[in-house]
DNA sequence: TTAGGGTTAG
């Protein structure tokens, strides 16, 4: 059955609205699960229309809304937070459809990323009122956002208050929160909390692995080993994952010799089986250290032992070949991967594209971008960012703007990095008009909920005042005013 | 989304 939304692939907003109305009115039966196309067409419509127009044009009662469709749309609108929240709120007034817990979680994540905590807590309250949450995942999201916004103390308070919101706390939520702190490099804080609460939550191997991995991320392998000693003393046995954490820790800290010794030790002790993650860690570790021969040897060894490489293994191997060997050799491995029947993912393409860009083969990088579409592997924001960045570095601003336009027309919205790279590039080239483009990009990014650095505002404002463009400078100042109260 | 391996470039 052809989706009723199939006609939405029209880039002209006016005709788009008409086709939506027509197709929605024709809709009488229950639609099949949301196709990606439906989600992107609806996202495109939501982006084009202001909320009022949306209420009038989008026939909410006629679309067969499902949590799956709503989640897909929220994902599409990830880099346009204000629109995503408007859409979510609009749909919340729907007469029959009610949001799922997962959709609430998405919306909460988006609001928290915009640092709009008032909305976050309002959503939590609504979630509770409708009896769909909040759940441990909701709190994982909220605490993670507080930590990454530089408010780890607030995150701890939120974690400790979970029960007041009717959300049960257990070892899982404890471990999740420890991991949130560790991943944001607040490892000491995580460790202190761990010491205080480990008895209450009956900390397990996973808790210790999380803390050890945190210290490894900080390249503090000795501290990680200390944590594991503590673990053994408390009567818990290390697992393969524990060993993989330490192995990775050595390589991350640049202790290649120690890593290799540890790997041999794991091999020697038969009781410790090794898996694809172990091998991927070592291939990547040697590669990053520039020891390509060793990386290749370990890669071959794993195949010889019958341990199947995963797509991640190939990605790691291809990446280090690009960086420390030769992009053509990396492409040979990419081709070999295809021959063996693997399906490359966006990361695979991204590392190859980056490799090509890095040696100035921009045309071939663009070919791979097209190839992604043919292979039904959607380019993501990182894909575009790499190409835009390298075009900018080469001074090919017009080409990078062309790629940027492709994003705007397609299914991938630019993120903070995209805007920062483009705006900086506008200052590298002393051409009249560039300042205006930079200013327009700046306003667009603010409208989409991104917060530019103060430096960026000042740079553009100074330029505009020097060229006597007072009116546009005022517009920029208004945009700056919309950046929130805790802006600095 | 209870833990371990793979994305930019600096």
UniProtKB/TrEMBL annotation:
Keywords assigned: Repeat
Coiled-coil region: none
SUPFAM superfamilies linked to this entry: TPR-like (SSF48452)
Presence of the UniProt keyword Nucleus in the record: no
Tagged with keyword Repeat: yes
PPR repeats: 135-169, 170-200, 204-238, 239-269, 275-309, 310-344, 345-379, 380-414, 415-452
Domain of life: Eukaryota
Family: Belongs to the PPR family. P subfamily.
Protein name as annotated: Tetratricopeptide-like helical domain superfamily
Organism whose genome encodes this protein: Helianthus annuus (Common sunflower)
């Amino acid at each position: 059955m052809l989706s009723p939304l199939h006609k939405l692939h029209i880039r002209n907003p006016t005709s788009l609205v008409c086709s939506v109305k027509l197709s929605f009115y024709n809709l009488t039966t229950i639609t099949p699960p949301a196709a990606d196309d439906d989600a992107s067409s609806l996202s495109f419509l939501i982006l084009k229309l202001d909320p009022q127009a949306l209420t009038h044009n989008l026939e909410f009662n006629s679309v067969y809304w499902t949590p799956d469709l709503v989640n897909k749309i929220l994902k599409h609108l990830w880099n346009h937070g204000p629109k995503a929240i408007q859409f979510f709120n609009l749909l919340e007034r729907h007469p029959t459809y009610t949001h799922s817990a997962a959709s609430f979680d998405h919306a909460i994540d988006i609001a928290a990323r915009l640092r709009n905590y008032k909305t976050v807590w309002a959503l939590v309250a609504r979630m509770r009122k409708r009896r769909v949450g909040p759940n441990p995942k909701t709190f994982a999201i909220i605490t993670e956002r507080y930590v990454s916004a530089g408010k780890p103390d607030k995150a701890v308070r939120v974690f400790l208050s979970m029960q007041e919101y009717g959300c049960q706390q257990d070892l899982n939520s404890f471990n999740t929160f420890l991991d949130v702190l560790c991943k944001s490099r607040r490892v000491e804080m995580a460790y202190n909390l761990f010491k205080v609460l480990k008895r209450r939550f009956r900390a397990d191997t996973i808790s210790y692995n999380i803390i050890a991995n945190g210290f490894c991320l900080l390249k503090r392998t000795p501290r990680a080993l200390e944590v594991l000693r503590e673990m053994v003393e408390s009567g818990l046995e290390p697992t393969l994952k524990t060993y993989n954490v330490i192995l990775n820790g050595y390589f991350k800290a640049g202790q290649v010799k120690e890593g290799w010794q540890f790997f041999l030790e794991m091999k020697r002790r038969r009781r410790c089986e090794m898996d694809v993650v172990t091998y991927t860690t070592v291939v990547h570790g040697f590669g990053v250290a520039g020891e390509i021969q060793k990386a290749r040897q370990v890669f071959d060894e794993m195949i010889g032992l019958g341990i199947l490489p995963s797509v991640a293994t190939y990605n790691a191997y291809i990446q280090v070949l690009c960086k420390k060997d030769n992009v053509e050799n990396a492409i040979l491995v990419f081709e070999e991967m295809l021959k063996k029947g693997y399906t490359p993912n966006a990361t695979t393409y991204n590392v190859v594209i980056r490799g090509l860009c890095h040696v100035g083969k921009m045309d071939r990088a663009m070919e791979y971008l097209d190839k992604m579409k043919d292979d039904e592997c959607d380019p993501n924001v990182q894909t575009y960012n790499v190409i835009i960045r390298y075009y900018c570095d080469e001074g090919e601003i017009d080409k990078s703007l062309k790629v940027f336009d492709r994003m705007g027309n397609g299914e991938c919205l630019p993120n903070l990095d995209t805007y920062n790279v483009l705006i900086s590039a506008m200052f590298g080239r002393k051409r009249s008009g560039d300042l205006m483009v930079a200013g327009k990009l700046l306003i667009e990014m603010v409208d989409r909920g991104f917060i530019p650095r103060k430096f960026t505002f000042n740079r553009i404002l100074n330029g505009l005042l020097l060229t006597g463009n007072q009116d546009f400078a005022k517009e920029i100042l208004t945009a700056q005013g919309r950046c929130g109260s805790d802006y600095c």
